[in-house]
């Protein structure tokens, strides 16, 4: 048994939570923030049997890879610029950070 | 020293928190949700000396065992049924999932 | 690689979060409460390379040591007292509890 701590960007956490349900994987969700300038994220705790760890890591990878997304910039408030138009920018979204932890005992009551 | 991560159903978390105080056990409480269809739960983090681990696990077991409870069903919104009466149903409440983790260092400042 | 779980009193958590950013240390912040009568605290999760663990622990120690602070008492509601004046009291603020956990795998997607 391992404890997987998965910190997942909010863009991906809903889809990942759905995948956990579809695949019968019990996950506990903690509210979390941060990691530099990146906005909200979700921390999942998962108790996983050793022989299933690789499959769970693969499932997370498929649903949470960092990728570039084109978004409209926020309007400029710099009054020296001639226009306040927004423009498309590429930002990095998604991604996950994972820790697989050894455990001494796993119990359910 | 061990780190116990205890995920406890909300029906039991208040009573368990009281027991921790009564027994001089320091616990940190994280807000958490999920584990399939079950409603809110609470994740406790506890730093426990090796020789006290069994006592703490026993305390959690006594206060958090899964049990059946009779509740009234929600009213039906199925208009093909002749009545919208609620009726008693047995649901499973309570319970805890525990991970006992080895630690390399424990420090307090 | 280690996973550091740092439970930090709220008086210190904002300054510590700033220090993490200044020093290029990625931290995930969980909302947490408790540890007896003490008010809110914050739990940080940090993935730290083995050779940097001591520096991170030192940084936390510098920013989170328990200390005495003089505060005004809340006004008394004990009507047997002749006055409802507040008076200065020494209270303990700040501090951190740290767990350094071994990890089997660390992954980023
Ligand atoms: Ni699917
Ligand atoms: Ni009691
Ligand atoms: Ni500084």
TrEMBL record, chains A, B, C:
InterPro entries: CdAMP_rec, N-reg_PII-like_a/b, N-reg_PII/ATP_PRibTrfase_C. It comes from the Bacteria. Gene3D superfamilies: 3.30.70.120. SUPFAM superfamilies: GlnB-like. This is Uncharacterized protein YaaQ. It comes from Alkalibacterium olivapovliticus. The lineage of its organism: Bacteria, Bacillati, Bacillota, Bacilli, Lactobacillales.
